[in-house]
Amino acid sequence: MPKRAFAICAHPDDIEFTMAGTLILLGKAGYELHYMTVANGSCGTNQFDRETIIQMRGEESRKAAAFIDAIYHEPLVDDIDIFYERQTLSRLSSIVRSVAPEIILTHSSDEYMEDHSTTCRLVLTAAFTRGMPNYLVNPPRPPVEHPVTVYHSLPFGGLDPLGRPVDPDIYVDTNSVIDQKREMLALHSSQKEWLDRSQGMDFYLHTMVNASREVGKKSGHFIHAESWIKHLHIGYCDETADPLSSTLNNFVYKP
Question: Measured by CB atoms within 10 angstroms of the end CB, which terminus of the chain is less buried, N or C?
């Protein structure tokens, strides 16, 4: 049975901006890939109604997941409705048990946007409770016992919400897959006008590529890169566990 890597972010296209390169490399290394956003993209527009944009962004996400042969998991809530509460947590916990991943990729715990930070909190608890028989999940699923290692992408721009730099533990060389990452992001075509207008992100594909290049430059070793912080092992895995680094050894630099 293949090992599994599960990328869980807040919104459609968050995976593509910050972690798709690492996910692609894990797939090439033999991992079964899983793809999920907790929110459905309902607020990512200034021209379509709620139902229309949800349908559009869902289809874009399915295409992006299929592009890297990842298994797609449906979102749970609307944008800005990601709260740390029982209903969402029990549903996400059930999905984490069903996937039983060895690696989880998710947001930083300290992001500029609350949807991102709260997604991180939900993911951590869903992973932490994976083996607890008395924690009830929806739909019900038996607990899973094997270890999981959680990795956090850096917050946008490598800065916390107060503008302070955040340093990673791990850099992953994504130069060999940057074109695939760009194609994957381009599948989220509904976001070009929205991001250009709402956040000043002219040419959102160039924004992603330029950010990737900046991370590569910061590493001092790579042209394009993604960067990661490994979550504390307690409750998740062995203290020495680092499957991301061991699997992608030839693509990894650890400062």
Answer: N
